[in-house]
Specification:
Shape: elongated
Distance between the termini: 107 Å
Strand order of the largest sheet: 14-15-17-18-19-20-21-22
CATH superfamily of the largest domain: EAL domain
Structural class: alpha/beta
Radius of gyration: 32 Å
Helix content: 40-55%
Low-confidence stretches: 74-80, 132-169
Length: 598
Amino acid sequence: MEEKTLIYVAGNPDAYPLEYFDKDTQTYAGVIPELLAEFSDQSTYEIVYYEADGTDHREELAQQKQVDLFSGYEAEEEQLENTGVVTLFPGENAYALYFTEAAPDAFQSNLRAYLEQVSPAEVTGLLMASVETPPNTQGMYWTMGAMGAALLVMAAVLLLTVRRYRRRLKESQQNVETDETTGLGNMEYLERYYKQYINDKNRILYQAVYFYVDTDRLRRLSSGQETDEFLRYCAVVLGEYTQDSDILARVSEHGFIMLKLTGGTDKTDAWLTAILDRIHDYAKLYGKPYETNIYAGIYALRAEDRDLNEIIFQASQGAYGAEKEDCRYLRCSKGMMDQFMQERHLQASIEQAFAQKEFQLYIQFYVDAANFAVVGGEALSRWKHPQKGVLLPSMFIPLMEREKMISRLDYYCLKEVCFFLKGLLKEGVDTFFVSCNFSRDTFAAADFVQKVQEIMNGFTFPRELLILEITESVSVRNAAQIRQNIIALKKYGVRVALDDFGEGFTSFYDLQKYPIDGIKLDKGLVDHVTTPIGTAILKAMIQVGHELNMTILAEGVETDEQVRAQQEIHCDVIQGFRFSHPMPQWEANAQIIQNRRT
C-alpha cells in the first residue's frame, strides 16, 4: 500500500457548521473536515488536524510554518504570509482555505483540482443540512410550534380550558405581531424569530435583504387605497419566494425585510431578479398609469453582527442607495458601510448642531418676471459643521427625515425667518416676502398652526410677508387636517403656496381642494419650457392659476432662453441661478437694504 504524505491543518475551532471542534469526540467536525477527509481517501495525502485541542492555534502555527493549511483566517493578509487561497463559500462572507509556504506544490494543485470538481450545490447542501431553520413567515398564518409536551393523563375539562387559553394567547400574539396592511409579521415578529433561530453558529449563512417601496410617491400618483393594494401584492410575491429557512416581515411604512439563508451570490441574484420583475409588472398587469418599482439592499451578516436594528439599517441603506442610483439592488460594500458610518456620526452631532446654532439661514432671491426687480426670497437651510464645513440640505435633510427630526428643523428655520423679516422692517423694508418650506409631516400635524403662531407672536412684521410652502405630495394624506391648517393660517394673515406644482397627477385637484395663494412650478416642467409641448403645458397651468387669482412662480430658471419663455407665457415671479445663488441671511440682508437705497 502506497505510503501517504502527511498534511497538517490548523483548524478553526468555532465556525459551526463549516468547521468546529467537537468536544464529545475531541475531533474537528463540519463541512471542511468532511471535504478534506474525502480528498484524503481519494489521494496520496493524509490530512491531520494539528494540535486539535479546541484552542485556536491558527495564527501561531501558520507563522511558524508548522502546518500546510489553515482555514478561515480573518486577519489582514499582510499579517500572515500565504501562497494562495481556495474559496469554499463564495459571497460577502467568503470562507477559505489558505496554503502556507510549507505546503507542497503538488498538494496545492491536487486539492484545488478536487475542490473545483465539488459543485456549489453540494457545498451549499452540506452547509444547510447543518442548520436549524425557522418557520416560513408569510403573514401570520403559519403554525408557531408546539407549546410544550402535553401530559398523557389530564382531566377533560382541564384540557379544554388549556386549549382555549392557548388559542386566545396565540390569537393575541398574532394580533400584536401582525402588520395590519399586508398580514405579514411586523418588527416584533421579526425580533422574536431572529432571537430564536439566528445564532452565532449559523449567522454568516444569512443575508438581510431590505425591500424599499416609495409609498409617498405612490400615494401622490394614485391614492392611499391603491398604495395599500400594491403593498399587499408585494407581500404576496415576497411570501412566494420565502423558504422555510427565511424570515419575512414588514418593518416600516416603506420597507420589508427578509433574513434569508443563502446559497451564494449567484443564487441570490437570480432569486432577487425574479422578485423584482414580478413586482415591476404590477402596473402593467393591473393597468396602472405609473411605474411600480421596489428597490433592494443586500447585507451579508458577519460573525460579529448581533444588533438586529443595525442589520436592518445596513440593508436599508443599500436599498435607498439603489433607488438613488436608479438600479434595482445594491450590495452593502465596505465603501457603502463607511458612508453609513459617516451618516451615523452626522446623526450623533445633530443635537449639538441645534445647541450651537450650526444650522444657518440662507436666502435665494425671487425676481419679478417683468422687470427682474428683487421682490422676495426662499428660506433655505445650511449646516455649518465644525469639522465638515458647510453642508448642503441633500446631506442632512434625508437623514433628519428618517430620524423624525425634520419638524424640529422646520420650526427652527421659521424662527430664523421671523428674525430676518423683523430685521428688514427695522431698516424700513416692508415689501420683501420670504417663503418657508415645510416637510409633509410637519404641515399635516394637528398642532402645526398653534406652533407657527407661538413662534410668530414673538415678532413684529406684516404677516403677509411670510409664505408657507407645502409640497404637492402632502395632499394625499391627512387632507382634512391640511385644509383646516391652511384656512387657519390664512385667517392669521399668512399666505400659503403649493410647491412642486405639476410633479404628479393630483395638481389641478389640489387647486380645488385647498385655498392657496400661489403655486411654484416644478423644475422638471421649467426645464422643458423652451419646447412646444413644455410651453403648452406651462401656459395652461399659468392660465388656470391666474383665473383663480394665484401668483405663479417658476423655480430653477438658469438660462436667458428660459427667462424669455416664462415672460411670454406671463409667469409672475422667477427664481434660479440665472439671477442669484443662495446666500447667507446677513449677505441677503445687506443686498436688500442696498437695493432699496439705490
